[in-house]
Design brief:
Elements (H helix, E strand, L loop, with lengths): L10 H8 L12 H7 L6 E4 L5 E6 L6 H4 L4 E3 L2 E4 L4 E2 L7 E6 L5 E3 L9 E6 L5 E7 L4 E7 L4 E4 L13 E4 L2 E6 L40 H11 E7 L5 E15 L5 E7 L14 E7 L4 E8 L17 E5 L6 E7 L13 E7 L7 E6 L2 E9 L2 E8 L4 E7 L8 E7 L9 E2 L1 E3 L5 E3 L7 E6 L10 E6 L5 E6 L5 E7 L7 E7 L2 E9 L2 E7 L14 E8 L5 E8 L5 H4 L2 E6 L3 E3 L2 H4 L26 E4 L4 E3 L10 H19 L2 E11 L1 H12 L5 E5 L23 H7 L12 E6 L9 H13 L4 E6 L9 H19 L10
Parallel strand pairs: 39-41, 39-43, 40-42, 43-44, 44-45, 45-46
Antiparallel strand pairs: 1-2, 2-6, 3-4, 4-5, 6-7, 8-9, 9-10, 10-11, 12-13, 13-14, 14-15, 15-16, 16-17, 17-18, 19-20, 20-21, 21-22, 23-24, 24-25, 25-26, 27-30, 28-29, 30-31, 31-32, 33-34, 34-35, 35-36, 37-38, 38-41
Helix pairs in contact: 7-8
Length: 810
Amino acid sequence: MPRRFPLLVGAPLLLGALALPAAAGYQTPPAELQALVDAPRPPLQSLGPKRQTLLQIQRPGLPGIADVAQPELKLAGLRLNPAMRAASRFDFGNALSLLDLNHGRSRAVQGLSAHARIADSAWSADESRVAFSLWGAKGVELWLLDVASARARRLGDFHLNAATGPGFAWLGQQLLVKLVPARQGPAPRAPAAPDGPNIQQSEGGALSQTRTYPDLLKTAYDADLLDYQLQSQLALLGMDGKLSLIGQPERYLGVSGAPNRQYLLTTRLQRPYSTLVPLSRFPKRIDVLDRQGRIVRTVAQRPLLERMPSGNDAVEAGPREVAWRADAPASLFWVEALDGGDPGRAAAERDALFLQAAPFQQAPRQWQRLASRFVDIRWGRGDLALVREHWWKTRELKVWRARPDQDAAPELLSSRKSEDRYSDPGEAATVSNANGQLVLQTTPDGKAIYLLGDGAGPDGDRPFVDRYALDDKRATRLWQSRAPWFEQALALLDDKAGQLLLSRESPSQPPNLYRLEPGRPASLAMLTHMPHPTPQLQNVGKQLLRYRRADGVELTATLYLPPGYQAKRDGPLPLLMWAYPTEFKTAAAASQVTESPYRFNRISYWGPLAMLARGYAVLDDPGMPIVGEGDKEPNDSYLPQLKMNAQAAVDEVLRLGVADPARIAVGGHSYGAFMTANLLAHTRLFHAGIARSGAYNRTLTPFGFQSEERNFWQAKAVYQTMSPFNYAEQIKDPLLLIHGEMDNNPGTFPLQSERLYQALQGLGATARLVTLPAESHGYRARESILHMLWEQDRWLERYLGRASAAKTPG
């Protein structure tokens, strides 16, 4: 007998009387949803520089709301735990183990408490030790793991300043650390009464693009508190715990040691500060210091950047991306814009690359000029570096072979559209050199590099490893994933590519690590044995769908069905569609497949797949491309394209007979929430919506949003038309709004959900607003996640009808 579900005929007309009551306190969803929240999480993994040992960091369950709601400072775009002098974080490890990749043996690390809170970790260059930070009772501690004995111990009686990074890095057989100054004294106290108004003033000038940043400084007290939190003392730390202080305490944002360990590259914060932009655009001084803390070379004095040119290709003028060259003893690298950083200015060349070697007495050498913006560089040796450049407007991405030590023109290795996944040749493999620096991994004769790619194609991703000859620019395929598995090469364990470290999974088998000799399938050796985290949903149905929208653009989506579901026997199900729009410059790129049918079905509490446990069908990530061919901007036709995308997805699930047209809901997070509100305002395809942490009024983000480069005054009609707030009177289907009260994402202020809810409530629409205390853009506390699932489950049950819980095996 087909399963029957009650249908709420005309439900939207009755909702004023049937509104869900406000619940007191955090609520807990049904057991099958709670089980997803408490499912074991896979460990974090870090491969040692010698590729012989893997560090595994075990993770406990989600933190409680008491941890998430600890005091937090919001200063200049940073979120800091004032007691720890560190960036707020809650995804800690609680145990460590070491996996021998040659023999598959795992050893638990001794010396840690059962409730350890492990934050950051770093291997030594010789793979004999791991340094890691641990949140203690009074601050962030530095610990050392000896690989041979698998035992950890604390290094020294001091605390790290981890406000802008881990606070430690290897420098040969020592550690370079940022310490909380020993004699700093107490933090500034908030004034008992204001000493005057807070004033902002603009003196005019060129057009500037400044997005709506959260957590900005507001008062002089905020600025003093930021100074206090960032003040740190540099020091060198021996393995015996002995400290050698370097210079005086400063407001260090970053520090890195030269590969030869004789110099330090430091970035220090400078005044004046701003109430308009975050710390990343505050004045900075970039210096090279010797090991005693004396300034050897001042690389840049970067001014306050309250004004920036408009556009996604805009950058600041002057030196940027300053770093050490990884394959040289002590050579600085940086980039400078040739067009003043303004993409609107006509220019044949946009960026120039510079080098300057120690002792920094000769003038910097300009060694390459780029027609577009510098992206990154992979160092290899004096005659080999890979430079990438990109121009957002055209999506043109180029890769060059450069010879930093030779007076030779660069060679173009590839040129393609960055959004074209099918033509992606892969990323160059890297390996740690003797100084612990990441450099290109080459064949033993140095004539070829290795490329690791996703292998995207019409049948889905099939990751690969290629050997790429540098002389004739030909790639030879060494290995590629094959159905019915999804395999991915994480590393080449030797320079001959004789052994690969693979991650291997299937729809019903979770990812595990394997060792493989390419060309010898029988050599496959399993290294880890991660169990299925949600065995009750092991037999979920999965199908990659392909269909077209009305204008012919090909789309894809992944359809998930509850375990045991049979369309002919069980009939149509209530369905949740969950999506996120993406901008493209070509319809061809928008039509490309971005998934694999062989990936593991990880049923997470975060996305839509949790509703499979309640018997719902789920259409995950249906294509929502917004295409702007040629000179057209994608958002000029956002709504027509969005509606075509949604109509095509609904038509496809109805054609398959798995969804009831009267019981389809749409949902999304962030830009997906924005999409959800727009679809409810401009279509009647859906009978309920779930919008989490979205933005709904684009006039509140007037200097751009998502990939939109134009500001409100340059494209008023676009901003107004795309804002579902302006069409709130057209939202006739029930909408659940969820938002973190402390959202830290630019543009998605909680006010966005509050104002949309007020509009819907005042217009007599059916809506519910849930704000989660202490939560940011992504929700972290176990209580918050459980309550979110409770809200979503109740909403869908009420407005789509009850779905039978997923069948369990046996």
